[in-house]
Design goal:
Strand 4 and strand 5 form a beta hairpin. The mean pLDDT is 94. Strands 1-13-3-9-10-11-6-7 form an eight-stranded antiparallel sheet, with no helix packed on it. It has 179 residues and is an all-beta fold. Helices cover 0% and strands 56% of the residues.
């Protein structure tokens, strides 16, 4: 069930809150042709009632293979203050990154949250296409009920302002019915 579609602003972070609730356990998130003003990566943190959780409770692994013939990866090697969704996005116009992610149990009464997906990224140059498998998790010793997600660039470069109707630099989130 469609919950929201929004365009990324011309800023280095973007929060969507009040999207996770007891109505659904899992969610699908689609990011379309996200682009930044300078090459960068995309991180996230979960949000609870407007407050980002930046505690050291996130881990991530991204593994890909580019059409240049090289294997590529990014991983946290332990806990960090963010999860990662895209790695090394090229900033050339008509480049960027797209993906479909499943967000598992962000609001459910459970200590661990997962985000998994498959992405296509123009890595470092517009001519270098790399598919990635992505796994990020959050784990806390107590139950957390997150209501939103904050996107942020790793280095701090701005997103290129997007358009939902134009299909670029936008995100759509859907609730998955349990029955």
């Amino acid at each position: 069930v469609h919950i929201t579609s929004q365009a990324f602003p011309s800023a280095n972070n973007f929060t969507i809150d009040n999207i996770f609730s007891s109505s659904y356990v899992n969610y699908i998130m689609m990011i379309n042709m996200l682009n930044t003003t300078t090459d960068d990566s995309l991180d996230f943190v979960f949000v609870k009632s407007g407050t980002p959780d930046t505690s050291s409770r996130y881990r991530y692994t991204l593994k890909g293979y580019s059409n240049s013939g090289n294997s590529t990866s990014s991983y946290s090697n332990g806990s960090t203050t963010f999860g990662k969704l895209f790695y090394d996005m090229d900033a050339d116009s008509e480049a960027g990154a797209s993906a479909t992610f499943t967000i598992y149990s962000p609001f459910a009464g459970y200590q661990r949250k997962h985000i998994g997906g498959i992405a296509v990224v123009q890595k470092n140059t517009a001519a270098n296409t790399a598919p990635y498998y992505i796994g990020s998790d959050y784990h806390n010793g107590t139950t957390q009920q997150f209501t939103g997600i904050k996107f942020q660039t790793t280095i701090g470069h701005n997103f290129r302002a997007g358009s939902v109707s134009g299909g670029y630099s936008s995100v759509s989130i859907y609730g998955v019915k349990n029955s």
